[in-house]
Amino acid sequence: MTDFFFYGSLCHPPLLRVVLGREVRVVPACLPDHSVAWAADGAFPMIGQGGAGADGLWVPGLSEADVARLDFYEAGFAFVTREMTIETAEGPRRARAYFPEPGRWEPGAAWSLSDWVARWGEIAVATAGDFMRQMGVVPAERLWARYGMMLMRGGARVRAGHEATRLTTRRRPAPDDVAETRVRQVYANYFAVEEFDLRFRRFDGTMSPEVNRGVFLCGDATVVLPYDPVRDRVLLIEQFRMGPHARGDRCAWLLEAPAGRVDAGETPEETARREAEEEAGLALHALLPASNHYPSPAAMGEYLYTYIGLADLPDDAAGLGGLLTEAEDIRAHVLPFERLMEMVETGEVNTGPLIVLAYWLDRNRARLRAEAGA
User: Which of 311, 307, 293 is nearest to 231 (CA)?
Assistant: First the structure.
Protein backbone atom coordinates (compact mmCIF):
# COMPACT_ATOMS: atom_id res chain seq x y z
CA MET A 1 0.00 0.00 0.00
CA THR A 2 1.15 3.55 -0.79
CA ASP A 3 0.19 6.86 0.83
CA PHE A 4 -0.15 9.93 -1.38
CA PHE A 5 -0.28 13.69 -0.82
CA PHE A 6 -2.34 15.72 -3.31
CA TYR A 7 -2.06 19.51 -3.44
CA GLY A 8 -3.86 20.56 -6.64
CA SER A 9 -6.80 19.56 -8.80
CA LEU A 10 -6.93 16.05 -7.29
CA CYS A 11 -8.06 17.73 -4.06
CA HIS A 12 -11.38 18.16 -5.88
CA PRO A 13 -13.31 15.08 -4.66
CA PRO A 14 -15.30 14.44 -7.88
CA LEU A 15 -12.09 14.43 -9.95
CA LEU A 16 -10.24 12.15 -7.51
CA ARG A 17 -13.20 9.76 -7.54
CA VAL A 18 -13.18 9.53 -11.35
CA VAL A 19 -9.40 9.09 -11.60
CA LEU A 20 -9.25 6.35 -8.95
CA GLY A 21 -12.57 4.81 -9.92
CA ARG A 22 -13.70 4.59 -6.30
CA GLU A 23 -14.18 6.51 -3.06
CA VAL A 24 -11.14 6.81 -0.77
CA ARG A 25 -10.41 8.16 2.68
CA VAL A 26 -8.94 11.67 2.61
CA VAL A 27 -7.37 13.66 5.45
CA PRO A 28 -6.43 17.39 5.34
CA ALA A 29 -2.65 17.76 5.26
CA CYS A 30 0.16 20.21 4.61
CA LEU A 31 3.63 19.92 3.08
CA PRO A 32 5.86 22.38 4.99
CA ASP A 33 8.27 24.76 3.27
CA HIS A 34 6.53 24.42 -0.10
CA SER A 35 4.00 26.41 -2.11
CA VAL A 36 1.62 25.75 -4.99
CA ALA A 37 1.29 27.95 -8.09
CA TRP A 38 -0.56 27.85 -11.37
CA ALA A 39 1.71 26.60 -14.12
CA ALA A 40 2.39 29.59 -16.37
CA ASP A 41 0.15 29.40 -19.47
CA GLY A 42 -1.54 26.30 -18.03
CA ALA A 43 -4.75 25.37 -16.26
CA PHE A 44 -3.10 23.11 -13.68
CA PRO A 45 -0.97 23.54 -10.52
CA MET A 46 2.66 22.84 -9.75
CA ILE A 47 4.45 22.62 -6.43
CA GLY A 48 7.83 24.08 -5.53
CA GLN A 49 10.13 24.53 -2.57
CA GLY A 50 9.79 27.59 -0.35
CA GLY A 51 6.73 29.19 1.14
CA ALA A 52 4.46 28.90 4.14
CA GLY A 53 3.34 25.38 3.28
CA ALA A 54 1.28 23.65 0.62
CA ASP A 55 -2.19 22.64 1.79
CA GLY A 56 -3.72 19.49 0.40
CA LEU A 57 -5.00 16.01 1.17
CA TRP A 58 -3.34 12.90 2.55
CA VAL A 59 -4.78 9.75 0.97
CA PRO A 60 -3.48 6.63 2.74
CA GLY A 61 -3.49 3.01 1.65
CA LEU A 62 -3.64 3.21 -2.14
CA SER A 63 -3.19 -0.07 -3.99
CA GLU A 64 -0.96 -0.83 -6.96
CA ALA A 65 -4.01 -0.52 -9.20
CA ASP A 66 -4.77 2.92 -7.71
CA VAL A 67 -1.19 4.08 -8.31
CA ALA A 68 -1.31 2.80 -11.90
CA ARG A 69 -4.47 4.86 -12.51
CA LEU A 70 -2.83 7.94 -11.00
CA ASP A 71 0.31 7.52 -13.08
CA PHE A 72 -1.80 7.09 -16.23
CA TYR A 73 -3.72 10.29 -15.52
CA GLU A 74 -0.66 12.32 -14.53
CA ALA A 75 1.51 11.14 -17.45
CA GLY A 76 0.96 14.23 -19.59
CA PHE A 77 2.02 16.69 -16.92
CA ALA A 78 5.62 15.39 -16.91
CA PHE A 79 5.47 14.91 -13.13
CA VAL A 80 7.54 12.50 -11.06
CA THR A 81 6.78 11.31 -7.52
CA ARG A 82 8.87 12.02 -4.45
CA GLU A 83 8.42 10.74 -0.93
CA MET A 84 7.95 13.63 1.50
CA THR A 85 7.07 14.17 5.16
CA ILE A 86 3.71 15.87 5.52
CA GLU A 87 1.79 17.19 8.52
CA THR A 88 -1.67 15.84 9.32
CA ALA A 89 -4.04 16.00 12.29
CA GLU A 90 -2.92 12.43 13.00
CA GLY A 91 0.73 13.49 13.15
CA PRO A 92 3.59 13.49 10.62
CA ARG A 93 3.29 11.01 7.78
CA ARG A 94 5.42 9.91 4.85
CA ALA A 95 3.64 10.17 1.51
CA ARG A 96 4.41 10.40 -2.17
CA ALA A 97 3.59 13.56 -4.14
CA TYR A 98 3.75 14.50 -7.82
CA PHE A 99 6.47 17.06 -8.58
CA PRO A 100 7.17 18.68 -11.97
CA GLU A 101 10.32 17.63 -13.77
CA PRO A 102 12.97 20.37 -13.26
CA GLY A 103 12.66 23.13 -15.86
CA ARG A 104 9.53 21.68 -17.52
CA TRP A 105 7.01 24.23 -16.23
CA GLU A 106 7.36 27.81 -15.01
CA PRO A 107 5.29 28.90 -11.99
CA GLY A 108 2.70 31.63 -12.34
CA ALA A 109 0.27 33.14 -9.83
CA ALA A 110 -0.53 31.50 -6.49
CA TRP A 111 -2.81 28.48 -6.94
CA SER A 112 -6.45 28.68 -5.90
CA LEU A 113 -8.44 25.44 -5.83
CA SER A 114 -11.73 27.32 -5.63
CA ASP A 115 -10.87 29.39 -8.73
CA TRP A 116 -9.90 26.23 -10.60
CA VAL A 117 -13.12 24.45 -9.59
CA ALA A 118 -15.24 27.43 -10.68
CA ARG A 119 -13.76 27.54 -14.18
CA TRP A 120 -12.42 24.05 -14.84
CA GLY A 121 -13.91 21.65 -12.30
CA GLU A 122 -16.88 20.25 -14.24
CA ILE A 123 -14.93 20.18 -17.52
CA ALA A 124 -11.97 18.39 -15.93
CA VAL A 125 -14.22 15.77 -14.32
CA ALA A 126 -16.08 15.11 -17.58
CA THR A 127 -12.79 14.88 -19.50
CA ALA A 128 -11.20 12.62 -16.88
CA GLY A 129 -14.03 10.14 -17.40
CA ASP A 130 -13.24 9.99 -21.12
CA PHE A 131 -9.52 9.81 -20.37
CA MET A 132 -9.65 7.00 -17.82
CA ARG A 133 -11.93 4.87 -20.04
CA GLN A 134 -8.99 4.61 -22.44
CA MET A 135 -6.61 3.12 -19.84
CA GLY A 136 -5.31 -0.16 -21.16
CA VAL A 137 -6.63 0.71 -24.64
CA VAL A 138 -4.67 3.79 -25.72
CA PRO A 139 -1.22 4.81 -24.37
CA ALA A 140 -1.34 7.88 -22.12
CA GLU A 141 1.10 9.76 -24.40
CA ARG A 142 -1.30 9.48 -27.34
CA LEU A 143 -4.19 10.72 -25.23
CA TRP A 144 -2.22 13.65 -23.89
CA ALA A 145 -1.25 14.64 -27.44
CA ARG A 146 -4.93 15.49 -28.01
CA TYR A 147 -5.89 16.45 -24.47
CA GLY A 148 -6.85 19.97 -25.55
CA MET A 149 -9.42 18.50 -27.93
CA MET A 150 -10.63 16.15 -25.18
CA LEU A 151 -11.18 19.17 -22.94
CA MET A 152 -13.28 20.77 -25.69
CA ARG A 153 -15.45 17.68 -25.73
CA GLY A 154 -15.67 17.74 -21.93
CA GLY A 155 -16.83 21.35 -22.10
CA ALA A 156 -19.45 20.42 -24.69
CA ARG A 157 -20.72 17.64 -22.44
CA VAL A 158 -21.01 20.07 -19.49
CA ARG A 159 -22.88 22.69 -21.55
CA ALA A 160 -25.24 20.03 -22.92
CA GLY A 161 -26.02 18.92 -19.38
CA HIS A 162 -26.85 22.44 -18.23
CA GLU A 163 -28.93 23.59 -21.19
CA ALA A 164 -32.69 23.32 -20.75
CA THR A 165 -34.57 22.78 -24.01
CA ARG A 166 -38.19 23.86 -24.12
CA LEU A 167 -40.12 20.78 -25.22
CA THR A 168 -43.60 21.26 -26.70
CA THR A 169 -43.65 18.53 -29.37
CA ARG A 170 -40.56 16.41 -28.86
CA ARG A 171 -40.37 13.39 -26.57
CA ARG A 172 -39.64 14.06 -22.91
CA PRO A 173 -36.80 11.66 -22.05
CA ALA A 174 -36.69 9.42 -18.98
CA PRO A 175 -33.46 8.18 -17.32
CA ASP A 176 -33.81 4.64 -18.69
CA ASP A 177 -34.69 5.59 -22.29
CA VAL A 178 -31.16 4.82 -23.56
CA ALA A 179 -29.15 1.76 -22.48
CA GLU A 180 -25.50 1.66 -23.57
CA THR A 181 -23.82 -1.74 -23.76
CA ARG A 182 -20.42 -0.65 -25.02
CA VAL A 183 -18.65 2.56 -26.05
CA ARG A 184 -15.32 2.44 -27.84
CA GLN A 185 -13.10 4.98 -29.55
CA VAL A 186 -12.19 3.72 -33.02
CA TYR A 187 -10.26 6.77 -34.22
CA ALA A 188 -8.68 9.75 -32.49
CA ASN A 189 -6.47 12.53 -33.78
CA TYR A 190 -7.58 16.16 -33.71
CA PHE A 191 -11.14 14.86 -34.02
CA ALA A 192 -12.41 11.46 -32.88
CA VAL A 193 -14.87 8.78 -33.89
CA GLU A 194 -16.66 6.67 -31.29
CA GLU A 195 -18.89 3.65 -31.74
CA PHE A 196 -21.83 2.89 -29.46
CA ASP A 197 -23.70 -0.37 -28.95
CA LEU A 198 -27.03 0.67 -27.43
CA ARG A 199 -30.77 0.33 -27.26
CA PHE A 200 -33.25 3.24 -27.15
CA ARG A 201 -36.89 3.69 -26.22
CA ARG A 202 -39.22 3.38 -29.22
CA PHE A 203 -42.34 5.49 -29.61
CA ASP A 204 -44.53 2.46 -28.79
CA GLY A 205 -42.83 2.24 -25.38
CA THR A 206 -40.67 -0.82 -26.07
CA MET A 207 -36.86 -0.85 -26.26
CA SER A 208 -35.24 -1.16 -29.67
CA PRO A 209 -32.95 -4.05 -30.58
CA GLU A 210 -29.28 -3.34 -29.89
CA VAL A 211 -27.83 -1.17 -32.66
CA ASN A 212 -24.29 -0.08 -33.52
CA ARG A 213 -23.84 3.61 -34.29
CA GLY A 214 -20.73 5.67 -35.02
CA VAL A 215 -20.42 9.35 -34.11
CA PHE A 216 -17.89 11.92 -35.34
CA LEU A 217 -16.86 14.03 -32.34
CA CYS A 218 -15.47 17.52 -32.84
CA GLY A 219 -16.72 19.58 -29.90
CA ASP A 220 -19.00 22.61 -29.93
CA ALA A 221 -18.40 25.60 -32.20
CA THR A 222 -19.47 29.22 -32.51
CA VAL A 223 -20.46 30.98 -35.74
CA VAL A 224 -20.85 34.76 -35.87
CA LEU A 225 -22.01 36.87 -38.83
CA PRO A 226 -20.69 40.46 -38.51
CA TYR A 227 -23.35 43.01 -39.49
CA ASP A 228 -23.25 46.80 -39.74
CA PRO A 229 -26.87 47.95 -39.36
CA VAL A 230 -26.07 51.55 -40.35
CA ARG A 231 -24.33 50.69 -43.62
CA ASP A 232 -26.49 47.54 -44.03
CA ARG A 233 -23.43 45.40 -44.72
CA VAL A 234 -22.15 41.98 -43.70
CA LEU A 235 -18.66 40.55 -43.57
CA LEU A 236 -18.02 37.09 -44.99
CA ILE A 237 -14.78 35.12 -45.02
CA GLU A 238 -13.52 32.85 -47.78
CA GLN A 239 -11.13 29.94 -47.26
CA PHE A 240 -10.18 26.48 -48.53
CA ARG A 241 -12.16 23.69 -46.88
CA MET A 242 -11.30 19.98 -46.72
CA GLY A 243 -14.90 18.73 -46.65
CA PRO A 244 -15.79 19.91 -50.17
CA HIS A 245 -12.34 18.87 -51.44
CA ALA A 246 -12.74 15.33 -50.09
CA ARG A 247 -16.24 15.17 -51.59
CA GLY A 248 -14.82 16.00 -55.03
CA ASP A 249 -16.07 19.58 -55.26
CA ARG A 250 -13.87 21.44 -57.75
CA CYS A 251 -14.38 24.69 -55.82
CA ALA A 252 -13.33 24.00 -52.24
CA TRP A 253 -13.05 27.73 -51.36
CA LEU A 254 -16.27 28.57 -49.50
CA LEU A 255 -17.94 31.70 -48.22
CA GLU A 256 -18.67 31.48 -44.50
CA ALA A 257 -19.18 33.49 -41.34
CA PRO A 258 -16.24 33.59 -38.89
CA ALA A 259 -16.33 30.48 -36.72
CA GLY A 260 -14.27 28.32 -34.42
CA ARG A 261 -14.24 25.64 -31.75
CA VAL A 262 -15.27 26.65 -28.23
CA ASP A 263 -12.06 26.13 -26.26
CA ALA A 264 -12.17 24.53 -22.83
CA GLY A 265 -12.78 27.15 -20.16
CA GLU A 266 -14.23 29.51 -22.77
CA THR A 267 -17.84 30.56 -23.31
CA PRO A 268 -19.43 30.51 -26.79
CA GLU A 269 -19.65 34.31 -26.62
CA GLU A 270 -15.92 34.60 -25.92
CA THR A 271 -15.26 32.31 -28.87
CA ALA A 272 -17.34 34.53 -31.16
CA ARG A 273 -15.36 37.64 -30.22
CA ARG A 274 -12.03 35.81 -30.48
CA GLU A 275 -12.78 34.36 -33.90
CA ALA A 276 -14.01 37.70 -35.29
CA GLU A 277 -10.69 39.22 -34.21
CA GLU A 278 -8.50 36.35 -35.47
CA GLU A 279 -10.21 35.76 -38.81
CA ALA A 280 -11.35 39.27 -39.74
CA GLY A 281 -9.60 41.73 -37.40
CA LEU A 282 -12.97 42.88 -36.04
CA ALA A 283 -13.94 44.08 -32.58
CA LEU A 284 -17.66 43.34 -32.19
CA HIS A 285 -19.89 45.87 -30.40
CA ALA A 286 -22.63 43.43 -29.40
CA LEU A 287 -23.58 39.80 -29.86
CA LEU A 288 -27.16 38.83 -30.69
CA PRO A 289 -27.96 35.12 -30.16
CA ALA A 290 -29.53 33.56 -33.23
CA SER A 291 -30.39 29.87 -33.72
CA ASN A 292 -28.30 27.23 -31.94
CA HIS A 293 -28.49 23.84 -33.62
CA TYR A 294 -27.03 20.45 -34.56
CA PRO A 295 -25.91 20.73 -38.22
CA SER A 296 -25.83 16.97 -38.89
CA PRO A 297 -27.23 15.01 -35.92
CA ALA A 298 -27.34 11.59 -37.58
CA ALA A 299 -23.57 11.20 -37.45
CA MET A 300 -21.97 14.22 -35.78
CA GLY A 301 -21.86 15.33 -32.14
CA GLU A 302 -21.16 18.93 -33.20
CA TYR A 303 -23.39 21.69 -31.77
CA LEU A 304 -23.32 25.25 -33.14
CA TYR A 305 -23.89 28.48 -31.21
CA THR A 306 -24.74 31.18 -33.75
CA TYR A 307 -24.73 34.95 -33.40
CA ILE A 308 -25.11 38.18 -35.29
CA GLY A 309 -22.19 40.41 -34.30
CA LEU A 310 -22.86 44.13 -34.58
CA ALA A 311 -19.79 45.91 -35.93
CA ASP A 312 -18.54 48.84 -37.99
CA LEU A 313 -17.85 47.67 -41.55
CA PRO A 314 -16.30 50.47 -43.61
CA ASP A 315 -14.85 49.78 -47.06
CA ASP A 316 -11.42 48.91 -45.66
CA ALA A 317 -12.78 46.24 -43.28
CA ALA A 318 -12.15 43.62 -45.97
CA GLY A 319 -8.72 42.07 -46.39
CA LEU A 320 -6.57 39.04 -45.65
CA GLY A 321 -6.36 37.31 -42.27
CA GLY A 322 -6.15 34.06 -40.32
CA LEU A 323 -3.58 32.50 -38.02
CA LEU A 324 -0.39 31.24 -39.63
CA THR A 325 0.04 28.85 -36.70
CA GLU A 326 -3.16 27.10 -37.84
CA ALA A 327 -2.30 27.28 -41.56
CA GLU A 328 -5.26 29.61 -42.12
CA ASP A 329 -5.45 31.65 -45.33
CA ILE A 330 -8.56 33.80 -45.14
CA ARG A 331 -9.97 36.53 -47.37
CA ALA A 332 -12.68 38.79 -45.96
CA HIS A 333 -15.44 40.31 -48.09
CA VAL A 334 -17.64 43.26 -47.06
CA LEU A 335 -20.90 43.05 -48.98
CA PRO A 336 -24.34 44.68 -48.97
CA PHE A 337 -26.91 42.55 -47.20
CA GLU A 338 -28.94 42.17 -50.38
CA ARG A 339 -25.88 40.72 -52.12
CA LEU A 340 -25.64 38.08 -49.39
CA MET A 341 -29.26 37.07 -49.97
CA GLU A 342 -28.70 36.92 -53.75
CA MET A 343 -25.80 34.48 -53.22
CA VAL A 344 -27.95 32.39 -50.86
CA GLU A 345 -30.58 32.14 -53.59
CA THR A 346 -28.09 31.29 -56.37
CA GLY A 347 -26.23 28.74 -54.21
CA GLU A 348 -22.89 30.55 -54.22
CA VAL A 349 -23.34 30.67 -50.44
CA ASN A 350 -23.69 26.97 -49.63
CA THR A 351 -22.64 26.60 -45.98
CA GLY A 352 -25.51 25.78 -43.64
CA PRO A 353 -24.64 28.02 -40.66
CA LEU A 354 -24.27 31.08 -42.89
CA ILE A 355 -27.59 30.36 -44.60
CA VAL A 356 -29.30 30.03 -41.19
CA LEU A 357 -27.81 33.35 -40.05
CA ALA A 358 -28.71 35.06 -43.34
CA TYR A 359 -32.37 34.16 -42.93
CA TRP A 360 -32.33 35.11 -39.23
CA LEU A 361 -30.88 38.50 -40.16
CA ASP A 362 -33.40 38.91 -42.98
CA ARG A 363 -36.21 38.45 -40.46
CA ASN A 364 -34.73 40.85 -37.87
CA ARG A 365 -32.89 43.34 -40.08
CA ALA A 366 -35.53 46.07 -40.13
CA ARG A 367 -35.65 46.13 -36.32
CA LEU A 368 -31.86 46.22 -36.00
CA ARG A 369 -31.59 49.06 -38.49
CA ALA A 370 -34.30 51.04 -36.74
CA GLU A 371 -32.58 50.58 -33.36
CA ALA A 372 -29.33 51.81 -34.92
CA GLY A 373 -31.04 54.89 -36.31
CA ALA A 374 -30.35 53.91 -39.91
Answer: 311
